[in-house]
Amino acid sequence: MKIAFVGEAVSGFGGMETVIRDVILSLKNKDMPDSCEMFFFCRNDNMDKKWLQGIDYTCSFSKIKLSFFRRLKHINNFDRWLKNNKPDVVICIDVLSCMLASKARLKSQQSFVLFSWPHFSLDHKKHAECIVYADHHLAISTGIKKQILARGVPEKRISLIYNPVTRQNITIPAPAENEVATFLYMGRMKFEGQKRIKDLLDGLASVDGPWKLHVIGDGSDFQKCQSYGRELQVDDKIIWHGWQEKPWELVQNEIQKVSALLLTSSFEGFGMVLLEAMSYGIPCISANCTAGPEDIIKEGVNGFLYPPSELNKFIFHLNQQVNHLIVFDSQAVKHSISMFYSEVYHKNMNEIISSIKNKSSI
């Protein structure tokens, strides 16, 4: 089977790229390998391409300012690519690409199954309505499935697949009862907006008892977040590590013990960092935002959820950790995400794609 993954150019640094790369390499390396390529719609050549090592890809470039004519050029370029490559399946990694691929399919008169595979909340993306151009949809969370349904897509055309995480042999333990609670934040620095670091700092500033916070990540609000920590007079409890190429190696080698990973986002596409933490046995305290956390967190087993607007409940869970009132079993945390481990995920993904492709051929 020939599969094309299609989308607008990405940064090259995010969790989405990691998932896409893992899926493509899994499809290429299975017992009966699929042929996989990528096709990008680009405005410039700024995309970091290190993550594409070992993956065949083509870029369509257009700097035309008027969106109608820019997209028309992309459609024409993809039309030519389709005629030359004749894929059996096209998987769009963003919503706008669903429309571009659909129009190119019509123009090229090629026959293939068109999947959407959006990695971000549709309610916070432009052109979300373009998702209806796809024949079938791969939803990475229950929240995104609901958003696709809300746009008039029948449930039978949606498959809930989640995202994969690598099983880890290493376990990162929690601090002992006589040690200071140590929290971890890993992600972009957005003071309010999506990540709401403000809520994270406000919550911790209200905790009764000693704690430490390690922050791994960078972003446009990095200095603003640091300044707010000083304003709350908790800056002496926070270690700012900045962006790290291998963040979990830093956690293992330098931080060594973690009470819980914290996520205070107003929305997510899935919340991969929760799965990554749990794969090391680290429980998580997360806002129950759209979308993802509700699919991952099992209350009291691998962490806790709190309503995004109710900071008092976030503080309650922090206090439990700081005062060692609840102890999580690291192995139980790891086991709780069994359905997300790569070997299970890739088997499920392959079966869904093959099944939908075969049905369309009947």
Model description:
InterPro entries: Glyco_trans_1, Glyco_trans_4-like_N. The chain is 37% helix and 18% strand. With 362 residues, the chain is an alpha/beta fold. It folds into 2 domains: 2-164 and 341-361, Rossmann fold (3-Layer(aba) Sandwich), CATH 3.40.50; 181-340, Glycogen Phosphorylase B (Rossmann fold, 3-Layer(aba) Sandwich). The strands form 2 sheets. Strands 3-2-1-4-5-6-7 form a 7-stranded parallel sheet, with helices on both faces. Strands 10-9-8-11-12-13 form a 6-stranded parallel sheet, sandwiched between helices. Helix 2 crosses helix 3 (95-108). The model has no long low-confidence stretch (mean pLDDT 94).
* Tally of alpha and pi helices: 12
- Spans of at least 5 consecutive residues with low confidence: none
SSE succession: EHEEHEHEEHEEHEHEHEHEHEHHH
The biggest beta sheet, please?
Answer: 7 strands, parallel
CATH architecture annotation of the largest domain: 3-Layer(aba) Sandwich
Work out the number of β strands. Answer: 13
Task: Provide the spatial order of strands within the biggest beta sheet.
Answer: 3-2-1-4-5-6-7
- Please indicate the count of domains: 2
What would CATH call the homologous superfamily of the largest domain? Answer: Glycogen Phosphorylase B
Global outline: elongated
Q: Estimate the strand proportion.
A: 15-25%
Structural class: alpha/beta
Radius of gyration: 22 Å
| CATH secondary-structure class of the largest domain | Alpha Beta
The percent range for helix content is: 25-40%
End-to-end separation: 16 Å
Enzyme class: transferase
Pfam families: Glyco_transf_4, Glycos_transf_1
EC number: 2.4.1.-
Organism: Buttiauxella agrestis ATCC 33320
